[in-house]
């Protein structure tokens, strides 16, 4: 197989799941800003077309809060959890989602609160200490406390249980609408009667009350300069230095016109307007992203940016959209790379490039790190990359070795035998490693034991250029003489497709 085709296959199978495998219901380029959209709705497995919140979990999966349960998207399929199949979920109406620093996914509902951690759900209700089972927002404090907004008070959850804040503690109202942790770790609490700030557990009403007054607060998010964007009964307001400034701008954001708002990790501010679509704040002014098309008419209920800059939109009636900037971006890695054999995104969001002689390059948070033989690689020629379910990162090298990353350095894994040359590396859902070799078939490494599959096991060729497992557990192998599939990963027997 030509080398250029092998590289394209490696990139395809190593790409993030929700980018390479997802099948959108429709996609269209919108407006003069050059954004591209993909969408998912009922035909793709979403349980409801009304999506209140969207987040990305630590494992890369996308979670969507709907009126028929919460859906977890692995890039191919939606798995739906609801009151019928998950006892910890006391209601199908999911209102909010949040991921805490320990990796837990928190689910707010009309029937209480639930936590998903390590594949298990735990439920919390009024009987557990919540002030109400009607959850409106969730946030995490600087000390790891979880703050839960309800229609009957503000709750703080710690290892000691729930503490409830109400009017007697200084809140202007028990109906909590929105939460935001600012750059100084103060918690801002939006109610239907105004905005307050909580610092070290104490409520301060002075700053916000004098600047904004006693009015409904629909949303609070950080501004890039450390201030706040506030969606209030007086319209869109910038709160900075104790002063509230109604944003005049080209587009007037009047009271009740904003359906949701979001500040991305880089400080970019996004706002959705009922009946007018999505706007972005750049260079001192708002620009309309969805000037034409479906999203310009749809109510956008939530906005969330994933690890690689894609913007996920939860809508009322049209499902989930993903927006990204069309085209390519050139990345300077700080090393001369004649070409890259594989590109891989690990679960922490890092992008890895393997090279043919320059080692391995990792780009994380805009900074590049080069790994060569000085950092333990058995060879500076790297042809395949994978991360298994335990989080261990693996690399195939030109010396016929398999290396793994341990405490910032690569170590050679003791394979029972060396391969002459290998093209691809893949880790399946069970944590097995699959190695596609140039002339020695397909290798499977499981619990330290190596199994080799060749033409004797049904492969059309012993040259295996790519391997992947689909959602049904089938193992697919791209070879020098065609494509083959095994319906079992435990006892592979391949058939030519």
Plain-language structure description:
Residues 1-32 have low confidence and may be disordered. The strands form eleven sheets. A five-stranded antiparallel beta sheet has the order 1-2-29-28-27, with no helix packed on it. It has a four-stranded antiparallel beta sheet with strand order 3-4-5-6, with no helix packed on it. The protein has a four-stranded antiparallel beta sheet with strand order 7-8-9-10, with no helix packed on it. The protein is elongated and about 75 Å long. It is mostly beta strands and 497 residues long. Helix content is 4%, strand content 47%. It contains three helices and 45 strands.
Structural class: mainly beta
User: Could you list the spans in which at least 5 consecutive residues all have pLDDT below 50?
Assistant: 1-32
Residue share in β-strands: over 45%
Quickly count the helices: 3
Mean pLDDT figure: 84
Q: Could you tell me how far the N terminus lies from the C terminus, measured between alpha carbons in angstroms?
A: 18 Å
- What is the global morphology? elongated
Q: Largest beta sheet: what is the strand line-up? A: 1-2-29-28-27
The largest sheet, given as strand count, sense and whether it forms a barrel, is:
5 strands, antiparallel
Count of extended strands: 45
Helix content: under 10%
Using only C-alpha atoms, the radius of gyration works out to 25 Å
Entry keywords:
mainly beta, five-stranded antiparallel beta sheet, four-stranded antiparallel beta sheet, 3 helices, disordered N terminus
What does the secondary structure layout of this molecule look like, with pairings?
Elements: H1 3-14, H2 17-20, E1 29-30, E2 35-40, E3 51-56, E4 62-66, E5 69-73, E6 78-81, E7 94-99, E8 105-109, E9 112-117, E10 120-124, E11 135-140, E12 146-150, E13 153-158, E14 161-165, E15 176-181, E16 187-191, E17 194-199, E18 202-204, H3 206-211, E19 217-222, E20 228-232, E21 235-240, E22 243-246, E23 258-263, E24 269-273, E25 277-282, E26 285-288, E27 300-305, E28 311-315, E29 320-325, E30 340-345, E31 351-355, E32 360-364, E33 367-371, E34 382-387, E35 393-397, E36 402-406, E37 409-413, E38 422-427, E39 433-437, E40 442-446, E41 449-453, E42 464-469, E43 475-479, E44 482-486, E45 494-496
Antiparallel strand pairs: 1-2, 2-29, 3-4, 4-5, 5-6, 7-8, 8-9, 9-10, 11-12, 12-13, 13-14, 15-16, 16-17, 17-18, 19-20, 20-21, 21-22, 23-24, 24-25, 25-26, 27-28, 28-29, 30-31, 31-32, 32-33, 34-35, 35-36, 36-37, 38-39, 39-40, 40-41, 42-43, 43-44, 44-45
């Amino acid at each position: 197989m030509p080398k250029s085709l092998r590289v394209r296959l490696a990139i395809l199978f190593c790409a993030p799941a929700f980018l390479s495998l997802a099948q959108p219901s429709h996609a269209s380029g919108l407006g003069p800003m050059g954004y591209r959209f993909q969408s998912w709705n009922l035909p793709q497995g979403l349980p409801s077309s009304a999506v209140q919140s969207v987040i990305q979990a630590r494992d890369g999966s996308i979670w969507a809060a709907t009126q028929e349960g919460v859906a977890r998207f692995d890039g191919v399929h939606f798995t739906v959890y609801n009151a019928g199949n998950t006892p910890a979920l006391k209601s199908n109406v999911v209102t909010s989602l949040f991921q805490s620093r320990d990796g837990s996914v928190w689910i707010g509902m009309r029937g209480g609160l639930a936590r998903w951690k390590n594949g298990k759900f735990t439920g919390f209700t009024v009987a557990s200490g919540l002030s109400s089972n009607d959850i409106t927002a969730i946030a995490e404090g600087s000390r790891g406390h979880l703050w839960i907004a309800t229609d009957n008070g503000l709750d703080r959850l710690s290892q000691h249980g729930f503490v409830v804040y109400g009017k007697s503690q200084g809140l202007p109202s028990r109906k909590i609408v929105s939460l935001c942790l600012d750059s100084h770790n103060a918690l801002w609490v939006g109610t239907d009667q105004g905005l307050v700030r909580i610092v070290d557990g104490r409520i301060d009403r002075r700053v916000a009350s004098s600047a904004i007054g006693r009015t409904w607060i629909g949303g609070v998010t950080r501004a890039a300069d450390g201030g706040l964007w506030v969606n209030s009964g007086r319209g869109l307001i910038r709160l900075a230095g104790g002063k509230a400034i109604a944003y005049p701008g080209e587009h007037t954001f009047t009271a009740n016109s904003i359906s949701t708002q979001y500040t991305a990790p880089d400080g970019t501010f996004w706002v959705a307007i009922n009946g007018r679509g999505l706007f972005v704040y750049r260079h001192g002014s708002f620009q309309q992203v969805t000037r034409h098309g479906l999203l310009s008419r749809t109510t956008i209920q939530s906005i969330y940016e994933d690890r690689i800059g894609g913007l996920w939109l939860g809508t009322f009636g049209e499902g989930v959209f993903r927006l990204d900037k069309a085209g390519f971006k050139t990345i300077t890695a700080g090393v001369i790379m004649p070409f890259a054999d594989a590109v891989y995104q690990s679960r922490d969001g890092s992008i890895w490039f393997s090279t043919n002689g320059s080692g391995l390059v990792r780009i994380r948070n805009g900074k590049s790190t080069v790994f060569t033989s000085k950092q333990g690689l058995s060879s500076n020629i790297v042809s395949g990359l994978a991360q298994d379910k335990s989080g261990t990162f693996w690399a195939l090298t030109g010396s016929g070795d398999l290396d793994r990353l341990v405490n910032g350095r690569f170590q050679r894994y003791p394979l029972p035998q060396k391969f002459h040359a290998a093209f691809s590396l893949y880790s399946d859902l069970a944590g097995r490693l699959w190695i596609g070799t140039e002339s020695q078939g397909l290798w499977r490494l499981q619990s330290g034991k190596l199994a080799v599959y060749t033409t004797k096991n049904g492969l059309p060729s012993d040259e295996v250029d790519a391997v992947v497992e689909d959602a049904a557990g089938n193992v697919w192998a791209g070879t020098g003489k065609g494509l083959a599939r095994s319906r079992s990963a435990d006892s592979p027997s391949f058939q030519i497709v």
